[in-house]
Amino acid sequence: WNERLGAQLCGEVKIRSLRERWYHEHLLHWRRSELRRIDMKHKVLMVKLHSLMSYIRELRAIWESKRGELTVQEKTQRARADRILSLCLQSGHGPQVVEPLLEEFSA
Question: Whole-model pTM?
Fold first, then answer.
């Protein structure tokens, strides 16, 4: 019985060691994925901030009569870009992934 117990304990140690390695690899992969998502969100937020600042500059130029009103095309382009960036924030993926999917869904 001593040998069987030793063999069983040795088998359990191997299984636990294997599970520990798998868990460690999974945790490492998940953490890297989370860091990529956070980095992408940071980049998207920076782009949104720059876009908002540009929009405010355009509005100031309109108020100061330095340029004409925003055209329908400009409004449409801005709305589309904002939609893409919002989807990027929600999904954690970059515009290069989100934009084709939005085009496919909109078609």
Answer: 0.72
What letters, b where the CB count within 10 A reaches 16 and e where it falls short, cover 56-69?
A: eebeeeeeeeeeee
Instruction: Take residue 99 and report the two structure tokens written for it.
Output: 């934009």
Judging by beta carbons within 10 Å of its beta carbon (0-12, 13-18, 19+), is residue 93 exposed, middle or buried? Answer: middle
| Residues found in the chain | 107
Residue range 6-52, pLDDT digits in tens: 899 999 999 999 999 999 999 999 999 999 989 999 999 999 999 99
Q: From the CB of residue 88, how many other CB atoms can be counted at a distance below 10 Å? A: 23
Q: Which residue is it, tokens 């100061």?
A: 64
